[in-house]
Specification:
By secondary structure, the chain is an alpha/beta fold. The protein has 3 domains: about 80 residues, Orthogonal Bundle (Arc Repressor Mutant, subunit A); about 90 residues, 3-Layer(aba) Sandwich (D-Maltodextrin-Binding Protein, domain 2); about 100 residues, D-Maltodextrin-Binding Protein, domain 2 (3-Layer(aba) Sandwich), CATH 3.40.190.290. It is about 40% helix and about 25% strand. The protein contains 9 helices and 15 strands. The protein has a 5-stranded mixed β-sheet, with helices on one face. A 5-stranded mixed β-sheet has the order 11-8-12-7-13. Helix 2 packs across helix 3. The N and C termini lie far apart (about 50 Å).
């Protein structure tokens, strides 16, 4: 058994099947299978239970995986130490964030981060997909009812949904005072994949729920904001989408005595527990958490505070 064999085992388990591991390692599936068999023979035990589409580690396979992952992380840390000698903070950070919160709130933080750390490459994707962490993503930000148990989750913010409309729409159509009235109004909100969209409202000890049939749907919140301002319907959106136009009076709110929820009420910063975090990634995580808490940017790791 050698480091190359352990690396192969780690990639197979991380990928979930031999075919995906072969693509990542730029090997044929047959070659991956051969080297896995050789490793199992050298160990004298089965390391993976295999089906046509999935692999699952045995107990000894999981133990070897943990050793292999730890060795990989140490190698990455050593390589990073050598690379940064005599240099400023460098590296790459892959970030996945929801389109609305990302563009309207976090983009300002990331521009500030980039100005502060010009040597770091930021690779930012605005998306709302479910599989948040992939090979090219170090950090993901998502609105969720509960964070996935297999990920490290740090809470960024509470998400408060508003029922809101342009002042012109409110004058013409009126504003709802009960959740049930939403079924008779043109609604503007985001979509949900695979199930009927529903709105939950909490008031004191009461819980209400109503099924929604929006007439303007998009995952792009700047577009939904335009629809609300144009008077096309009643918006059901997070407060950060319209907080400035609510303050100016151009948009008015309804159902203010309810705490509303559609997709979850917490914004989480997510990352994998076992993956090696470079100094650049750790610095970015600390920076974003500080900004979300309304604090000044933290000092660069290894440097004294300014």
């Amino acid at each position: 058994m050698d480091l190359q064999s352990l690396t192969l085992l780690v990639e197979i388990i991380d990928s979930g099947n031999l075919s995906q591991a072969a693509r990542k390692l730029r090997m044929t599936r047959a070659n991956v299978s051969y080297h896995l068999t050789q490793l199992e023979q050298s160990v004298g035990a089965q390391l993976l239970r295999r089906s046509t589409r999935h692999v699952e580690p045995t107990e000894i396979g999981l133990r070897l995986y943990e050793h292999g992952r730890a060795i990989q992380n140490e190698m990455l840390a050593a390589r990073e130490t050598v690379t940064r000698l005599g240099q400023g903070l460098m590296g790459r950070v892959g970030i996945s964030m929801p389109s609305g919160y990302g563009q309207m709130v976090m983009s300002h933080w990331l521009i500030e981060f980039k100005r502060r750390y010009p040597g770091i490459v930021l690779d930012v994707v605005f998306e709302n997909r479910v599989d948040v962490l992939r090979d090219d993503v170090d950090i993901a930000v998502r609105v969720l009812p509960e964070p996935p148990p297999h990920l490290v989750a740090r809470e960024l913010d509470e998400v408060r949904y508003l029922a809101c409309a342009s002042s012109a729409f409110a004058r013409t159509h009126g504003l709802p005072t009960r959740l049930e009235q939403l079924t008779t109004l043109p609604l503007i909100t985001a979509s949900v994949v695979g199930r009927q969209l529903s709105l939950r409202g909490y008031r004191q000890d009461e819980r209400h729920e109503v099924l929604l049939a929006p007439t303007l749907i998009s995952d792009h919140y700047p577009f939904l904001r335009q629809g609300i301002l144009a008077g096309l319907g009643l918006g059901l959106v997070p407060d950060y989408v319209v907080q400035d136009v609510v303050a100016s009076g151009a948009v008015v709110t309804a159902l203010d005595d309810f705490r509303l929820s559609i997709f979850g009420t917490r914004m989480y910063l997510l990352h994998l527990p076992g993956r090696h975090q470079t100094r650049a990634v750790r610095t970015c995580i600390d920076f974003l958490l500080a900004r979300a808490a309304g604090q000044s940017a933290p000092p660069t790791p290894g440097e004294p505070p300014a």
